[in-house]
Design brief:
The chain has helices spanning 86-102, 133-136, 144-163, 220-223, 230-246, 256-265, 271-274, 281-289, 301-313, 376-397, 435-438, and strands spanning 2-3, 10-11, 26-27, 42-43, 47-55, 59-66, 72-78, 110-115, 121-126, 130-132, 166-167, 176-181, 184-190, 197-198, 443-449, 454-457, 460-464, 466-470, 477-482, 489-493, 500-504. With 557 residues, it is of the alpha+beta class.
Length: 557
């Protein structure tokens, strides 16, 4: 048994930090078996308490049964020592209100609410038989289709919460429970809205600057103590997806603050670096959910859910369509007959782009295409006409050195005859092009470097490292080359494109990790000379062994 030296709350042995104030818990000596005063009693005259099944930061969870209906229930009772704190009581009440207000099948239902004989607050909820996602991950890697099936349900439940203005803010595998319901295995239930933020709530009990949640699953803005919205849940779900698919957390450290700092400043290692089979759309979905800036993530749980459904069907995902900067691509012209939603370029009425004998995409961005000034061609023509007129005028004023007048008409000269004075040499007859140059080859082969580069056209994967495709008869076709850790490039194919095109990608510039500590505004400060305020989390000492699932005990074990 562990306890918080600051607030006195007791926890299970694997909880290293107090969820209430962030203080490191200490191990307490066993004092013999304690008798729980609630077991065997009846709460509110209708709920008979049978056994303790879990405990967390705010309360203890019991298995109970309705004395009349004989229906099994779970009763969550607030700890006696917590009932003295009005803010904690309000958070406890808010958990019941948040869960019951959503009314989604994948969110645990709250059935009743009240107080016990000694004044403790409780609420009754449905009793779940199954296992948490944290326990399900202990059995080894999870099959891809099973994982996608689970995350689609989670996204659906959280989208319903977000539409009611409720942000969970404490998503983690322990709060995601898997049961069998209606003949369906792996039916997800989302638990524990204890620190949920309700939009326009009358009581601001989750104020900006207060850090709540489990550090391994916090969004960067949540770790910095800033205001959060529904996109914080998208990031937390992205962390869980990373853990389920790759088998490990994207960020870990020896201390509470170390984990939060990595969420704020470090980029995650691509999942494919851990499991190469994840390269492609699965990795794209995970990394889009894990973007540091909220505006670069999915903008709703519905968007994430739709991409997860595309993953399950094997369709291209929207997360794979990364935007290329102006300096990273040649001009693109849509083809007639195509539509923006189809993603398929169509033929253009504009002139085709100039033919390139060989394209090295690494050099394209540094050579911008320049437009010829409109005045240049008329100026060149005017200069040429002036030179010709000056030459003819000089010839007409020069004294004649010939005894015979110039020949007015000249018969066809012999091949060896040289042109006479004042005569221009006859222009050579145009040589017809060889048959091989009259019609270009119908296919183009594109090769890419470095190894493992992927080639895309119209959002579809053409191949890896190389691809051969038909040259467009009219208009243009854009082919994008991508590789994780490299700057994406694109080339245009047109009727005059060469048979062989080589594309070389450049590595993305490496941003050095910050050597200074994050500003005080980005993380809760810890005063050395004075105790930390009650509403501010204190820094944690390093642990001898990091606990990847470091928070409240699973109440359903």
């Amino acid at each position: 048994m562990r306890s918080c030296p600051k607030c006195g709350t007791r926890y299970a042995d694997d909880l290293a930090y107090c969820p209430n104030d962030g203080t490191a818990t200490t191990l307490q000596a066993e004092r013999g078996a304690e008798v729980d005063p609630f077991i065997g009693t009846t709460i509110d005259g209708r709920y008979r308490v049978e056994a303790r099944i879990g405990e967390g930061g705010m309360g203890v969870v019991y298995r109970a049964s309705h004395t009349v209906l004989k229906k099994p229930l779970a009763i969550k009772v607030m700890r006696g020592e917590q009932a003295q704190d009005p803010e904690v009581v309000q958070r406890f009440v808010q958990e019941a209100q948040s869960s019951s207000a959503i009314g989604h099948p994948n969110i645990i239902s709250i059935n009743d609410f009240g107080t016990t004989a000694d004044g403790s607050v409780y609420f009754a909820m449905e009793y779940l038989e199954g296992q948490s996602l944290a326990r399900a991950m202990e059995h080894g890697p999870m099959a891809r289709q099973r994982a996608i099936h689970l995350f689609v349900q989670m996204a659906s439940a959280l989208e319903a919460a977000h539409q009611r203005g409720i942000v969970h803010r404490d998503l983690k595998p322990d709060n995601l429970f898997l049961i069998r319901q209606g003949g369906q295995d792996d039916f997800v239930k989302v638990l524990d809205f204890g620190i949920a933020k309700v939009k326009n709530a009358a009581a601001k009990i989750t104020r900006t600057g207060m850090v709540f949640g489990t550090p391994h699953y916090m969004s960067p803005e949540q770790a910095a103590g800033q205001a959060v919205d529904h996109r914080s849940d998208i990031y937390s779900l992205g962390v869980i997806m990373y853990q389920v698919f790759a088998g490990q957390l994207p960020f870990d450290a020896e201390s509470y603050m170390g984990v939060m700092t990595k969420h704020m400043y470090d980029e995650p290692v691509p999942p494919s670096a851990i499991l190469p089979a994840l390269r492609g759309p699965v990795e794209d979905v995970i990394l889009k959910a894990l973007e540091k800036k909220p505006e670069q993530r999915y903008q709703s749980m519905l968007e994430l859910k739709q991409d997860l459904e595309r993953l399950g069907r094997g369709d291209p995902v929207l997360a794979a369509e990364r935007k290329l900067g102006v300096s990273d691509t040649l001009p693109f012209t849509p083809l007639p007959g195509g539509s923006p939603s189809s993603g398929v370029p169509a033929a253009s009425a504009a002139p085709a782009a100039p033919t390139l004998s060989e394209i090295d995409a690494a050099d394209v961005p540094s050579v911008p295409r320049k437009r010829t000034p409109g005045w240049l061609l008329p100026a060149v023509l005017a200069s040429s006409v002036g030179l010709v007129l000056a030459y003819l005028l000089a010839r007409s004023n020069a004294p004649s050195t010939e005894s015979n007048p110039p020949v007015a008409a000249v018969s066809a000269p012999a091949p060896s005859a040289a042109p006479g004075p004042g005569m221009l040499a006859p222009a050579p007859s145009p040589t017809p092009p060889p048959p091989s140059a009259a019609a270009p080859a119908p296919r183009v082969h594109i090769s890419a470097q470095p190894e493992g580069s992927e080639l895309y056209a119209a959002g579809a994967l053409l191949g890896q490292d190389q691809a051969t495709l038909d040259r467009p008869v009219t208009g243009q076709l854009r082919v994008e080359v991508r590789h994780r850790g490299y700057v994406s490039k694109a080339v245009l194919l047109d009727p005059g494109s060469p048979e062989q095109i080589r594309v070389a990608l450049e590595q993305e510039p490496q941003t050095p990790a910050p050597t200074r500590k994050p500003p005080a505004a980005h993380a809760p400060a810890v005063e050395a000379a004075a105790p930390a305020p009650k509403t501010q989390a204190a820094a944690k000492p390093a642990l001898n062994k990091p606990n990847p699932l470091n928070d409240v005990v699973d109440p359903w074990r």
